[in-house]
Amino acid sequence: MYLKKALWLSISVLTLLTFSGCMKHDMAGMSGADHSKHQAMMNKKNYDRSVETYQIPDVMMTDHEGRKVSMAELMDTDKPVVVNFLYATCTTICPLLSMGYIDLQRDLKDKTEEVLLISVTIDPEHDSPEVLNNYRKRFNGKPGWVLLTGSRLDVEKITKGFNTFFADKMDHEPLNFIKLPAKNRWVRLNGMLSGADFIHELEMAGVR
Ligand SMILES: [Cu+2]
User: Fold this and answer.
1) FRET partner for 201 with CA separation of 20 to 30 A, picked from 51, 70, 100, 174?
2) pLDDT values of the chain reduced to their tens digit, one per residue, 208 residues
3) pTM for the predicted model, two decimal places
4) Is 200 inside any structural domain?
């Protein structure tokens, strides 16, 4: 009798644990449907390319070293500029986007500073400068890669500027943007890019 009760109890506990485990997974956007969607994106070999006109608002952000930076001032450079959106706790698309940046930095060898790589967090409540700094270290980011956080409102102003809307941070497209020499003109790249892809795109854009 006691044994039976103990067995029941352990089964209930197990069920409870499994259930809460699922809840956690769902909250992390890893439920079956979402996951296959992510998987499909990750397996996508190519990327889509289009040339767009964007008016990027000048908002004050904070970089991964805690410095206040004006978005407009940061992008007002003769260097090639690439922008993407990510968040530190993402386990699907963002690490791959970051690996694309890292792959490009590897190809640039000791000239990583010649291309300005910007990542804007879409989870500013969690991604403090310190969190972003650790994220950058984890990927062994080199000079030239700047990660930005700011207020939710300002982050949304930037995503809106790039005609991008992340209804849910868990469900976002793998986007990179390359600034063209002409004012407000950008190449929008949807998909995963390797370092070689980036260099090809930068050359096509005439910025490198
Ligand atoms: Cu992500």
Assistant:
1) 70
2) 444 444 444 444 333 333 333 333 333 333 444 555 555 555 545 899 999 999 999 999 999 999 999 999 999 999 999 999 999 999 999 999 999 999 999 999 999 999 999 999 999 999 999 999 999 999 999 999 999 999 999 999 999 999 998 877 777 889 999 999 888 999 999 999 999 999 999 999 998 8
3) 0.78
4) yes
What is the Cα–Cα distance from 115 to 108, expressed in whole angstroms?
9
Residue at 172 is within a domain: yes
- DSSP state at residue 111: G
Structural domain includes residue 39: no
Same domain, 26 and 88: no
Return the sign of the alpha-carbon dihedral for residues 47, 48, 53, 58: negative
Ligand 1 centroid to 121 CA: how many Å? Answer: 10
Using the mean position of ligand 1's atoms as its centre, give its distance from the Cα of residue 138 in Å.
16
Whether residue 174 lies inside any domain: the answer is yes
Structural domain of 198:
49-204
